Description:
By secondary structure, the chain is of the alpha+beta class. The protein has two domains: 7-83, Phosphorylase Kinase, domain 1, CATH 3.30.200; 86-226, ATP-grasp fold, B domain (D-amino Acid Aminotransferase, Chain A, domain 1, 2-Layer Sandwich), CATH 3.30.470. The protein has helices at 47-64, 101-105, 135-141, 146-169, 218-221, 227-240, and strands at residues 7-10, 14-18, 24-29, 32-35, 40-43, 71-76, 79-83, 86-87, 90-97, 113-123, 172-179, 181-183, 189-191, 200-204. Helix 1 (47-64) packs parallel to helix 6 (227-240). The longest helix is centred in the middle third of the chain and has 24 residues, at 146-169.
Amino acid sequence: MNNKYELIYEGKAKKVFSHNDSDKVIIEFKDDATAFNALKKARFEGKGKLNCLISARIFELLIKNNIPTHFIELKNENTMIAKKIKVIPLEIVLRNTAYGSLCKQTTIKPGTVLVKPLIDIYLKNDELNDPLLTKDRIELMNILSSKDLDLIINLTIKINGIMKSFFKNIQLQLVDFKLEFGYDFKNDILLGDEISPDNCRLWDLNQKNDTIVSLDKDIFRNDLGGLIEAYSEINRRINKLT
Length: 242
Ligand code: TMP
Ligand code: ASP
């Protein structure tokens, strides 16, 4: 990114720059990957571009379905223009199938299809290791009103419906995903962050047997190899749709 734009924030996978229009930001997707609160780190050439392109397509799909998001347009392959938001420090995880931390912390077996989606809300706070919250704890911290919390939960359920059928169409099982929301200058709630194989679990449905084939960041978390090939395959299947 050329230096006429000021770096406002650098996260683990993205950089956020100022835009000439103060209601907008420029988001650059990095090739860096982290897991387990950055205990594990690596760089995958081309990951930023793939996540940016995949996210843009999913945001467009959601906008078409009347979900308010921060996405405006792609600037280039690894950079997007978005509405500036004040990020709500919550990570909203929706699970359709049990996997990951849910199976580490409960007796639910990996791969169990949940009767109804489970929503787990975590505090976005690296120092505290993103702890799992309760509704009462959220209320105590005064992070947002219960009306706004309900709005976010309802949006997450709606987003799940849209994404689940979209991914099923391209032979992918949407196991779970993580969303972040924020307030724009009008104080409206928008979906922010990214929607990519970094924050969704996607399993290949083109399998003859029951083996789990992850096409997401679990490849890095579990050292399975072939991360760029998997992300490229998702991008390829999405692009085949149009
Ligand atoms: P978990 O099973 O590790 O709790 O992850 C649930 C989903 O949330 C999975 O799709 C990965 C995503 N996720 C993030 O995007 N960021 C995170 O920091 C964590 C822990 C999970
Ligand atoms: N995003 C988190 C981290 O870097 C964890 C994860 O996605 O597994 O640390």
